[in-house]
What we know:
The protein is an all-alpha fold and 320 residues long. The protein has 16 helices and no strands. Helix 2 packs across helix 4, helix 4 packs antiparallel against helix 5 (79-90) and helix 6 (94-106) runs antiparallel to helix 7. The chain is globular.
Amino acid sequence: MKALASYIMRGRFQALLVGVVAASLMWLVPPFSTVLGELALGAVIALVTLRNGVREGGLILFGTAAIAAVLALIAVQEGAFAAAMTGAVVVPVIPVLLLAYVLRKTISWGVTLSMAALLGALVVLAVYAATGDPTAFWQARLAAMVEGLHAALNSASGSAELAPADIEQAIATLNRGGEVLAPWMTGLFAVSMLTMFIGSLMLGRWWQALLYNPGGWREEFYALRMPKTLAIASGVLLLATVVLPGTAGQLTADLVFVAGAVYLFPGLAIAHGWVRGKAYAAPALVVLYVLLFIIPHVSMLLAGVGWLDAWVNVRRRVSV
């Protein structure tokens, strides 16, 4: 990783080259390569911005988008695809550019993650503004996906393992699952975007520390703490989800979901600091991250610890 970061920082050509490679990854095996490509490109822009400023970061971002669009146009010879490539490069990474600028100016993860929470809230509001009724919108999209799967399974129903009754039962189960999941899809979408923004920024910050401040990222991460103002706003939103009915209540619930995602990071910082230097640190963190991905309640618990830390300084009480 240090060698890659060093290569990026050699000059514009090198940064653009890595950026174009990262952008190209988005189209290899979606959606997995898309996530990897966006994360890598965001980290490149974050590193350049943190070190050389927002103007240089913007130059690399838009230069990468322009080169990727030209390559897409040459390969596919279709203007719509080139335009889609440009949008896929620029839109998800502009927030990373903004957050890197904020972190460079404030040198505060609390302020930067508060700005990230605001960006996540804007994503939620944009979905509500664009769809009117996000639950109905996601129900329709999920139903269309299930219908496509239904058609595919029916075409393969000649196989002995795919009896028509089994297919219908599976499709009915998926439809019920879609109805349950639809109200949460806006929040999940915003949180996935937010996690990508913050992940790219943290990767870029780690690269910067590897090159110019060895060990600095670890100390910075351990000290991560959110400001009390965001904790107050989150508490008000949480109360509003109980009081407000209908769409307004769902909107505040989605905003609380976004705030919870931000508070997950100081929660993780406290967990890392707590086991720091202990013999069981590595296995404990492995178990923590496994549980984090398979049990949603672990994420909620960590986010709660991060929220509480803004009020009572949990890390001081556990000697982090």
